[in-house]
Amino acid sequence: MNYNSWMPSRSGFVGVAPLSLVALVTTLTLSACSPQIDLPAALGVEDVTTGWLDAGLDDSGRTKLVPTISFRLENRSSEHLGSLQLNSIFRRCLVAPEGQPEPVSEVSPADPAAGTCAGEVQEWGSSFIRVAGRDGLAPGASTNAFTLQSGLGYTGEQPRLEMLQHRGFVDVKVELFVKHGSDQWVRLGEHLITRHLLTQ
Fold this sequence. Notes:
This protein is mostly beta strands. The chain has 3 helices and 11 strands. 12% of the residues lie in helices and 38% in strands. The longest helix is centred in the N-terminal third of the chain and has 15 residues.
């Protein structure tokens, strides 16, 4: 009998799977049941610097400032972490009218521990990077520093410091998400972009 063939029956199709297929399904089932790594606990976000990068002049000759974050990741666990990807989402802070209570966001709530604000529903740019490829990140090892910035920013004709102090300037925060191998995306934390000028 050919074990790769399927035989019709009254109740549908019945077949005998090859031994290699049974082994593969068993392996996948065991892998799915194995505990996932607690990435927020395993990865430390170190040497964080945030600010507003002078991205040069736009087509109209106005200065453009974009929110930027730089950091490195450290594997604090005893496990070897394989392929790692990281996504950053920038959001402007919700601003309450004068005399009104602080706004609340279900999509991007404030994080008191991180000192961040409630964010707008609409994203204000994002950035994706591959943190570690096939070699992964060994226990105790750290990545090189990464710099992520939004494609969106503020433009103005006034000096850069005046732009940061403008009454229409709204602060921005960045949310970090990490993915290990084929696991789901996990929130790694968030940081407020400080009103500090950065240069290339």
